[in-house]
Amino acid sequence: MDQLDHDIVQDLLPLYHDGVCSDKSRAAVEEHLKTCEDCRAALTAMDAPLPEVEKAADDAAVAVKKISGEWKRGKRRAHIIGVIVAVVVCAAAAVGIWTLTTWTCIPMDGGDYTLDVYRLRSGGVGVHWDFREGRETWYALTFREEADGLHYYLERPILRVELFDFDSNYNRGGDAMFESWSDDAMETEAIYFGLGEDAVLLWKEGEEVDLPAATAAQEEMWAIAELPPQEVPQE
Predict the structure, then answer these.
(1) Pick from 182, 152, 193, 176: nearest CA to 227
(2) pLDDT in the model for residue 154
(3) Hey, is 83 helix, strand or coil?
């Protein structure tokens, strides 16, 4: 077979590379490639990616890597934010529940409890209250000054919830004792237990308040308890 001219082979190489030349041309090119190193190198170079294509591929890989990194960082950041939000929400809910069920701010009235007031032999006045059925709750004994005198009264939380099962029945009733009153020591005209129409008079300046005498059990209770008297606040 006659050897093809080098320049002709150079023109046929793209067709040979793509497999679209005739069988005769293919055989001639392959015969030439056996002895021509330059043509073999040119044929090999045709399989190498173009610089632009390689650069585009590298740029795409960098972009994908960058997007992947940003997505991972965003996911981690979203997870951290989610945890913080969850903690804040739980803390706010806990504080809200605690406030609604333990912060005493609602005055209680006669519909919430029954009251027993009596006078001890020592001259002190004892007060016992029992909550009506279904009205048991956490509570506090407090006081405030009104136009007619000083009023002690019970307060409950916003939500009436029995939080604890006290053996002492603290959230079902209670007792208080008031004593050591004298006209000279008092800076209020009268002392009541309760508010409004539920107020019960315990002491009034210059007047003997008619109260039932304490029972033997009540006298014994305070003798055993030896609790300090409730101090009347001074202005």
Answers:
(1) 176
(2) 95
(3) helix
